[in-house]
Amino acid sequence: LYVETPLGEGVAVPVEGNAAHYLIGVMRVKPDDVVLLFDGRSGEWAARARDIRKRDLVLVCETRTRPLEHVPDFWLCCAPIKKGRIDLIAEKACELGAAKLQPVLTRRAVVDRLNLDRLRAHLVEAAEQCGRTALPELGEMVKLDALLREWPDDRWLFFADETGGAPLEQALRAHPGPAAFLIGPEGGFDPSEREAIRAVAKAVPVSLGPRILRAETAAIAATSAWMALNGD
Ligand code: SAM
């Protein structure tokens, strides 16, 4: 279970709301049962259930059961897409091990606002489900030109370009190190955006194959491929 309280030996964590309902009502946690907690900073902790009431309980941290995970240095930068689909991207990016999810506003995006709280809730749920001990960072939405202007010079920018680019495996093997993938919206990038992306010094246009993938498929495929080669 993810909690915002910084964890440490002896720390008592009050739990209420949905998390308490899940523990008390669904998992039937009883006094002295052990619940595993993580705070995204200090690894995973075994905590003992105390003071269980109808709608809340307290978890008292005892021992650290796992250190903070190693997070591969990979960002997924993607245009906002429709609700359920961007939620899927958040869930899978977290499961696959991404360090950061960065929403990027592009000209053809059909969605220009994102509910970051909802996306963050999906990241937390995915982290809990897959046993991560760190949460991926969730960036505020930035415009594409601002993202490109400030692109760090120590990070590859793999540009998923459905109009053509280097074969994926070859491009990934030739450019090891900190990386990001940039995925367009349902309508793709417009030609001037494509040109601006390609002008970034660290940009590496890649193809994900001969078929046009949905944005969420492209995001998941790209993240899986990078992780398979670099994400130990
Ligand atoms: N512009 C396209 C169109 O309307 O025909 C569709 C864009 S596609 C649904 C969304 C995004 O997924 C693209 O902008 C690109 O980043 C990525 N993508 C999809 N298929 C791809 C492929 N075969 N190679 C590289 N990127 C791909």
From TrEMBL:
Main location class: cytoplasm
Superkingdom, natural source: Bacteria
KW S-adenosyl-L-methionine (keyword) present: yes
One GO cellular component term noted in the UniProt record for this chain: cytoplasm
Reaction(s) this enzyme catalyzes, per UniProt: uridine(1498) in 16S rRNA + S-adenosyl-L-methionine = N(3)-methyluridine(1498) in 16S rRNA + S-adenosyl-L-homocysteine + H(+)
GO terms of biological process kind: rRNA base methylation
Family matches, as Gene3D superfamilies: 3.40.1280.10, Hypothetical PUA domain-like, domain 1
Domain Ribosomal RNA small subunit methyltransferase E PUA-like: 16-57
Domain (Ribosomal RNA small subunit methyltransferase E methyltransferase): residue spans on this chain: 73-226
GO molecular function: rRNA (uridine-N3-)-methyltransferase activity
Subcellular location: Cytoplasm
Pfam families: Methyltrans_RNA, PUA_4
Function text: Specifically methylates the N3 position of the uracil ring of uridine 1498 (m3U1498) in 16S rRNA. Acts on the fully assembled 30S ribosomal subunit.
Family: Belongs to the RNA methyltransferase RsmE family.
NCBIfam families associated with the record: PRK11713.3-5, RsmE family RNA methyltransferase
Protein name (record): Ribosomal RNA small subunit methyltransferase E
Organism encoding this protein: Sphingobium wenxiniae (strain DSM 21828 / CGMCC 1.7748 / JZ-1)
